[in-house]
Write a structure and sequence with these properties.
By secondary structure, this protein is α+β, with helices and mostly antiparallel strands. The protein is built from seven helices and five strands. Strands 3-1-2-5-4 form a five-stranded antiparallel beta sheet, sandwiched between helices. The longest helix is centred in the last third of the chain and has 13 residues, at 133-145.
Length: 146
């Protein structure tokens, strides 16, 4: 939520209210800012039709292990596998939780399982892990290699 607010030039509180449906009459500038921040067209944001959003584009289609973080730098990190990591992370957005794709690297389900095993001591639930220093270092290295 905070990242979206920053990108759209809005306050986090305002975006939180938007997510909860508190406003139904938005200024045009607000809608344009949200569309730009999300990387979608106005048609797609308002009507759910039109140009396909960038995060669902076919160039994102490659088997990858991805790292996504919830609710800012202190949030839990998901280690997942998807052939469309940008699209998958978008699916994770629920309620007021903000999930950001940190990076994606070519990989397989076996690679994902190996990482889950490697960081088992940091696992909170499912595929979500505490942002321990070793995991953050791995992500930093993966970003540099990508």
């Amino acid at each position: 939520m905070h990242v979206l607010a920053d990108r759209a030039g809005l306050s986090s509180g305002y975006v939180s209210l938007l997510e909860r449906g508190a406003y139904s009459d938005l200024r045009c500038e607000t809608v344009v800012g949200l569309a730009e921040a999300l990387g979608v067209t106005l048609d797609w944001l308002v009507l759910g039709r039109g140009d396909e959003p960038a995060w669902t584009a076919s160039d994102d289609a490659a088997p990858s292990v991805y790292f996504a973080q919830a609710d800012g730098k202190a949030g839990l990190i998901k280690i997942g596998f998807s052939s469309r990591p940008k699209h998958r992370v978008r699916q994770l957005l629920t309620g007021s939780a903000q999930v950001v794709l940190l990076c994606a690297v070519p990989g397989s389900k076996d690679d994902e399982r190996a990482l889950h095993k490697r960081f088992a001591s940091a696992r909170v639930h499912g595929e979500w892990f505490n942002p321990v220093p070793e995991l953050l270092e791995l992500i930093t290295q993966a970003k540099g290699a990508a």
